[in-house]
Amino acid sequence: MDKQLLFALDIGTRSVIGLVGEDENGTVKLIASDREEHHTRAMLDGQIHDVREVAEVLNSVKTRLEAKTGKLTRVAVAAAGRALCTLRISAELDVSTRGTLTPEDERSLELAAIQTAQAELATSRTVPEPADYYCVGYSVVNFSLDGTRIKSLVGQRGKHSAIEAIATFLPRQVIDSLQSAIETVGLEMATLTLEPIAAINVLIPTTMRHLNLVLIDVGAGTSDVAITRDGSVIAYGMVPFAGDEITEAISQKYLLDFNVAETVKRQLNGKNKKISFTDVLGMAQKVAAKEIIEAMAPKVGELAQAIAAEIIALNNERPQAVLLVGGGALTPLLPEVLAEALDIPATRVAIRRPDSIEGITGIPAKLCTPDSVTPLGILKLAGGRTLNFINITVNERAIRLFNLSRLTIADALLAAGIDIRALRGRPGMGLTITVNDETMFIAGGHGSPGEIARNGQPAKLTDILEDRDSLVVTLGTDGATPAPLLQDIAPATEPLMITLDGKEYQLARQVTINGVLATPDTVLHDRDQICAKPTLTLKDALGQLAHEPVPAEYTYQINNTERSYKIWPQFSIDGTQASPDTPLTAGSVIEILKPPPPTLAEMLGIDSEVDSSITVSFNGSPCIIPLQRHTILVNGKPADINQPAASGSHIDFTTSPELQPLISDVLLAADFDPRSLPITARVNILLNGMPTEYTAIVKNGDSVEIKIETK
């Protein structure tokens, strides 16, 4: 009979349990066990805080076990689900050429799924630093062969196999501290799993997993959750709330040292009706167990609510039953309160003990306790197909990879968070530039490839990794992005000679980038819009010469208020009046024309003699009748609005209100003066052929006739 010595350690927040068994053709015979509690709170929430303190306890347990079994060098361990990250993944494998499938074929498919999970985590944003997370276990949800779900692939034949699995990851800090403590006592981590995975393999065999069951490992620091349904494990979870919070509540209530409060809590499940203890003040007390249970009830309720919330979040509904394991499972009131929180019958929440476990024999009575389920599960998995490490370094950074069969350098780079694409060296980004509405492209520089060295020798991504390999990865260099100058794209043209007010000037052709004037040494960027003007305008010339036209300013006293009026100069090019947009040619002569003084109409803002008027016919001739009249006095004398307004003049300006014109206004506008007629003359006025009076109203287009009769 072949025998293999198996060593398992359950390194918990409160205590360390060590088990040694012999593998006898697939069955583990338990031959030794040992337990020791931490002397201080060296672990919190499943995380090692004091490696040396934990290592001392591990060494004590290991030493006592070796006295019974001989030298122990390799150990199987499990991690609590602190900061657990869970991924549900699938993988496929073509098995059409493999004939009858073997356990190795099934194992290859499992490992392919784990590699898929690692790749998915490394490229996702699920966690801040994916490279700092390790896969600590996985559970197969189901296999399928040619589209049909099947329990196992072994012994089957087909073309296409697939797997769906749940992979669990923990932060590097959790695993590294565990590894450090183990190595301190001279042990090598042989296998690693997750505590709920170990526990579920003991209490819920595959024949029970068609039920919707929840296994909760209530430890001192964490409460780990595993859920089964439809024949497989469907989810893992963790609540950072467990037995230590209950102990803290007792400690706070009765002013007890934490270890004393822990002892009091453990006595609550005994037959003692009253419990004696001494508080931190040195006062001895004797308190009824019922009173202590009532004092810690609120915290138990909080623990139950936290666990129930995690179960509902993972399961999306109430489970059929809940199995409690771990030392914290013995917390008074917990099963009843948890059943109430989940709204299931109290009889469906039970504390489980490992009275008998398939695959393990020789379990002593002292291990038939809820907190022995997980260490027994670790021991059972120690001889199975669990994960193990290989240790490598990538750029002097230590990396532990789970030995997933044929690991390659590409897997190491993935675990180290190095983007494999960065090894190639990407071309530099090109520039797209528009010159006078025509698009041109300037290519970027070529990148240079990176290098990989393994143990000082050149290596490829596909090379197989070995334990203790040292990798040095030099990333590729990206090509440079071009930075052309304006003069490289739009060379300067010949300057333009012009004459301004008798002086000769040399003007450069203007080039703008994105509408801003640029110099030849301006560096170009992507999407720049270049406008190289073929001609210069009068405005361009004045801008280059920094010539700012100065207006002529006139001042007046208008109705006793000082006012000013500006007239901008005009320009001529080669004797012809020009606008700012008039183009220049070689030899253009530009003159600045001094404007004449403004007229009264320009200065006062009057466009014509009258702002509004109507037109009537007077004795057959058109006659304009103003509706308003302007009265202008310049230095006290009447003035016409079209005469120049000398600077410094005193101007009095009034405007009559707009009125409805009368016949008398028509006569006035037509310069008809009845006083020039003989005394005996008789004047007849016709409006549109009808007799009318001087006070009759006229409208635009009316006809007025004057008929004079002499006696």
From TrEMBL:
<dbReference type="InterPro" id="IPR043129">
    <property type="entry name" value="ATPase_NBD"/>
</dbReference>
<protein>
    <submittedName>
        <fullName>Cell division protein FtsA</fullName>
    </submittedName>
</protein>
<dbReference type="GO" id="GO:0051301">
    <property type="term" value="P:cell division"/>
</dbReference>
<keyword id="KW-0131">Cell cycle</keyword>
<dbReference type="Pfam" id="PF14450">
    <property type="entry name" value="FtsA"/>
</dbReference>
<dbReference type="InterPro" id="IPR050696">
    <property type="entry name" value="FtsA/MreB"/>
</dbReference>
<keyword id="KW-0132">Cell division</keyword>
<feature type="domain" description="SHS2">
    <location>
        <begin position="6"/>
        <end position="203"/>
    </location>
</feature>
<dbReference type="InterPro" id="IPR003494">
    <property type="entry name" value="SHS2_FtsA"/>
</dbReference>
